[in-house]
């Protein structure tokens, strides 16, 4: 998704005027006026909230999860993205989550509990080479409605920073919508330029809740 800003400027040039206005016109000369697009923020289709999970062992899980802020324009997204730490720089055990406003990044949320996630596992080397670009492209897929007809099926995305390897996932709200789920996975894989010989899997939250994430069976792969 590209910034919807036009760098051009409109310029108002003086034109021939009666003699009594000539002196004033010479003083004013050319008058530059801002491009109206620079004064107008460009709305997104949805309002989104960025969440941060801090791995504080002295608090319970819910107390560690905080909303950073919510936004609904292109400009406010970039202001936020450029202000927070890159995903690769947050501490191990911490997460970023970007979800549609009103949906909490947890399995128990009404919009999540029947859904699942497309999961990408990244090794430590990829943290320095690909994690940040993958995360940004995933965010742009979300706010830019890149999943098209399936965008309503998408709840948000999570990046987990872990010592053993990081995880990036797209969450959907209904794991039984097979074709919609597959289209989301294909779009994500294409946008991240993941090679065809590397597969990513989709896990239902109901399966992940009963097993460790690494052992939960993939319902779909692309």
UniProtKB/TrEMBL annotation:
Any single GO BP term: regulation of translation
GO molecular function terms noted in the UniProt entry: RNA 7-methylguanosine cap binding; translation initiation factor activity
Domain of life of the source: Eukaryota
Keywords: Initiation factor, Protein biosynthesis, RNA-binding, Translation regulation
GO cellular component term of the entry, any: eukaryotic translation initiation factor 4F complex
InterPro entries noted in UniProt: TIF_eIF4e-like (IPR023398), TIF_eIF_4E (IPR001040), TIF_eIF_4E_CS (IPR019770)
Pfam families for the chain: IF4E
SUPFAM superfamilies, sorted: eIF4e-like
Protein family according to the UniProt entry: Belongs to the eukaryotic initiation factor 4E family.
Protein name stated in the entry: EIF-4F 25 kDa subunit
């Amino acid at each position: 998704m590209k910034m919807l800003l036009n760098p051009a400027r409109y310029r108002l040039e003086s034109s021939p005027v009666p003699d009594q206005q000539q002196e004033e016109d010479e003083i004013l000369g050319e008058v530059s006026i801002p491009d109206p697009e620079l004064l107008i923020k460009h709305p997104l289709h949805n309002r989104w909230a960025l969440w941060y999970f801090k791995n504080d062992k002295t608090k319970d899980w819910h107390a560690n999860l905080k909303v950073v802020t919510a936004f609904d324009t292109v400009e406010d997204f970039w202001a936020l993205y450029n202000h927070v730490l890159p995903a690769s720089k947050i501490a191990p055990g911490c997460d970023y989550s970007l979800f549609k406003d009103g949906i909490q990044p947890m399995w128990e949320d009404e919009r999540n509990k029947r859904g699942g996630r497309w999961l990408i596992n990244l090794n430590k080397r990829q943290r320095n080479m690909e994690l940040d670009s993958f995360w940004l492209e995933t965010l742009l897929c979300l706010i830019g409605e890149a999943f098209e007809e399936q965008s309503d099926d998408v709840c948000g995305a999570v990046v987990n920073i872990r010592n053993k390897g990081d995880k990036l996932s797209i969450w959907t709200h209904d794991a039984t919508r097979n074709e919609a789920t597959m289209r989301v996975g294909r779009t994500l894989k294409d946008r991240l330029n993941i090679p065809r010989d590397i597969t990513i899997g989709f896990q239902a939250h109901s399966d992940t809740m009963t097993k460790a994430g690494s052992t939960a069976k993939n319902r779909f792969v692309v």
